Amino acid sequence: MQLVRGGLLAAGGMLIGAAAPASTAQAAAAVAAASEPALAAGAATEIAAAASQHFSKVLLSTLADCELAVSVFPTFSYNAAGGGGTGSVTERDDGLLNIVFDPATLNIPPINAQHASIIGIPIPPPLNIAIVPQASGAGCCWGKAARGLRLEGTLDPATGRVDLDFLASFEFTAGPIYRAAPLTVATTLTTEASDGVLRHGVGERLRADGRARLVGVARVPRTTDGFLNTFLMLPTDALAVLSAELKFS
């Protein structure tokens, strides 16, 4: 157990992997043009209408240059390349675009020696933080998405602002030796600013190259695992900085 605790300390910058936007060249160019201060309201409306007319699906790809931090521990570098999912796009009456990802398609790489490091040193194996399904009905209230993973929100075509509600369950393991109580994490991944008690992040809006940087500060609650509560100093803040790309079709 002492080895496990020492390894967990090295892996202290856990949490959230999630997701975010980007677009095809046509959609991204429209977003970039729409972000100029001189853009008229009528032009912004045309952009939203065009996006709604031409795009009904979205493909999310998470990228390598991400970061994670929890409590007062140092910030981890997190390589989320290879993750993502697919979703639907619809226009709202206010001109924003609704983006809803299918939980069954979402894949977020685990936080382990392959994907995360601190000061260039990988998290020591066998430590692993995986996103796991919650029990059916355990805090889920979004129809059939009782899988325990949620990613949905809005894109403003006139500015490139993205706000995505994120909900998932995280599980610490150290091989067969230790399995912590699951952590349920809820936050809003945004291209704007996100603030908590201990952590703060600033994102970057959807760019012409189809990339965005989303941030989210979550308040992580206490669990039934006394060691995990003490180790992470729960309740506490967790920060996710997620670089991602969205392609529309």
Strand content: 35-45%
- Overall pLDDT, averaged? 78
Distance between the first and last residues' Cα: 50 Å
What Rg, in angstroms, do the CA atoms define?
A: 19 Å
Q: Considering DSSP H and I runs of 4 or more, what fraction of the residues is helical?
A: 10-25%
Number of domains: 1
| Count of discrete alpha- or pi-helical segments spanning 4 or more residues | 4
Order of helices and strands: HHHEEEEEEEEEEEEEEEHE
Shape: globular
Unreliable spans are: 1-50, 133-147
Structural class: alpha+beta
How many beta-strand segments?
16
The largest sheet is: 13 strands, antiparallel
Question: Characteristics of this structure?
Answer:
13-stranded antiparallel β-sheet; 4 helices; 249 residues; single chain; alpha+beta; 39% strand; 16 strands; two-stranded antiparallel sheet
Describe this structure in words.
- With 249 residues, this protein is of the alpha+beta class.
- The protein has one domain (2-248).
- 16% of the residues lie in helices and 39% in strands.
- Strands 1, 2, 3, 4, 5, 6, 7, 8, 9, 10, 12, 15 and 16 form a 13-stranded antiparallel beta sheet that branches. Strands 13-14 form a two-stranded antiparallel ribbon.
- Strand 13 and strand 14 form a beta hairpin.
- Helix 2 runs antiparallel to helix 3.
- 45% of the residues are buried.
Short précis:
It comes from Chlorella ohadii. A hairpin with a 4-residue loop joins strand 9 (150-156) and strand 10. By secondary structure, the protein is α+β, with helices and mostly antiparallel strands.
Summarize the SSE layout with pairings:
Layout (H helix, E strand, L loop, with lengths): L1 H9 L14 H10 L6 H14 L2 E6 L3 E5 L5 E3 L5 E8 L5 E5 L14 E3 L2 E2 L4 E6 L17 E7 L4 E14 L3 E2 L3 E8 L2 E3 L4 E3 L8 E10 L5 H7 L3 E13 L1
Antiparallel strand pairs: 1-4, 1-16, 2-3, 2-16, 3-6, 4-5, 5-9, 6-7, 8-10, 9-10, 10-12, 13-14, 15-16
Helix pairs in contact: 2-3
